[in-house]
Amino acid sequence: MEEFHILIIDDDEVSNFLTERAITSNWDWKVSTASNGIKALEFLKQNSQPDVILLDLNMPLLNGIEFIEKLETTYNKITSKIYILSTSNRKDDIQSASKYDCVDGYIEKPLEASKLRELLSR
Q1: Which domains does the chain have, with CATH numbers?
Q2: Averages of pLDDT over each 10 residues, the chain, 122 residues
Q3: How far apart are CA 11 and CA 3, in angstroms?
Q4: Contacting residues for 19 by C-beta, under 8 A, at least 6 apart
Q5: Cis check: omega of the bond before 110, within 30 degrees of 0
């Protein structure tokens, strides 16, 4: 696979470390992190949209759904593939995330390289 830039948006530092390690152990991709939706929006103002965004739902200040809504109002076109990366397997969370056209999938934590490979190969 070609090189990608992945943005991980999650307030859990341990989860960010494990997710980043799962990615960098398997690919030579650029990985950036933001600890909440507000910091992620600030990152996106200063950088181009990454190829992939891995987004947690439950975060302080600006949760995953609120981040998606702000992202949709900020950009005419979202070029990033967005995957929800969450510990929640609640149907309500999955349904509320999947109602957004920019969300390409839902992954339960912890991220496994094989699952990411499968999603990105589509």
Answers
A1: 5-120 (3.40.50.2300)
A2: 83 92 90 95 94 93 92 88 83 78 86 80 72
A3: 25
A4: 8, 10, 54, 85, 109, 110, 111
A5: yes
